[in-house]
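Posting here for the record, re: threonylcarbamoyladenylate.
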Amino acid sequence: METIVATVDNNVNSHQTYLQAVHYLNNSEVVAFPTETVYGLGAVATDEVAVKRIFEAKGRPSDNPLIVHIGTVEEVNDYIEEMPAVAKKCMEAFWPGPLTIVMKAKPGVLAKSVTAGLMTVGVRMPDHPVALALLQTLKKPLAAPSANRSGKPSPTRAEHVAKDLNGIIPYIIDGGATGIGIESTVLDVTVDVPVILRPGGVTKEMLETVIGSVVEPTQAEQKIESTPKAPGMKYTHYAPDAPVYLIDQETDIQQAISQLQAQGHKVALLAPYSFENAGADYFFSLGEQANAEQMGEYLYDALRRCDQTDATLILAMAIEKNGVGTAIMNRLEKAAGEKWFRL
Ligand code: TXA
Ligand code: MG
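Prediction output follows.
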């Protein structure tokens, strides 16, 4: 299959691109498109044949449900059984935006594989002009996971999507680099006290100012069987080819690198730009020190760039677990399989 990459910006006739994408989607095909978080791989969420193609293209386990993306807030009522008061408040405060709200699904409306057999569905309205233009031209909901092969870091650029899915999907809309760079917060509001199933750009603190108490299970709590989890969180994620080790900010980085190099390693370092001259074989900047937003923006691109090197080990510098730092560390701990480098 030939994969077409269509660029949309203010200088080209983007409308043609949206019409072509809609044509593919209405013919049960999948299309990759940018959102404010990461690129998504979309299929019409009511079309079982189309949704199955997402799972095939990604190599995604069938028990992992998909997020339904909508182009207007009102549409949400078509796909959910009831709207809890907290959900309404969240929509008013955070939509369009990086918050997926898990609610009871209306039976028999969405393709079965979207919800992967669950009674609930995660819905979000993305805050990206290209995603919204596509949805509003299509006038249907899009089921869309991140547009990477399962296990790989989510794509934050159209080139990342092409690297993973070239020849496998027909159409990629290139809207440039995404802004936030990590996936949406997933919030389950079907329980008494809402639970964050996946941390993201909308933080616990931000949610609590709008809806009061929210539960955010710690890394340790997530390992307990009875803790509510997003089905997808149990799988390996965000993994480049070489093993990733987290390294504490307090560690002597130069010494760590020399020690690893003495063992014969080629080391790639992902850290704030002030560590550029720490002696790593490859260095990928994560922006300014202690700036979680910038780190989110650069993280997946940096992890993917490691695959273009002959690094045998990747060191990624940790950040404080507060605000967006919680989401960053959630992704990094998964990328590293929780391995830490200590001198
Ligand atoms: O920012 C994002 O959320 C991106 C963009 C494309 O919108 N999408 C994304 O989708 O990250 P995906 O499929 O890579 O991750 C969705 C996560 C998975 O961990 C999945 O298990 C969880 O959300 N999820 C989806 N529906 C759910 C449900 N009904 N209950 C619990 N978890 C759900
Ligand atoms: Mg994903």
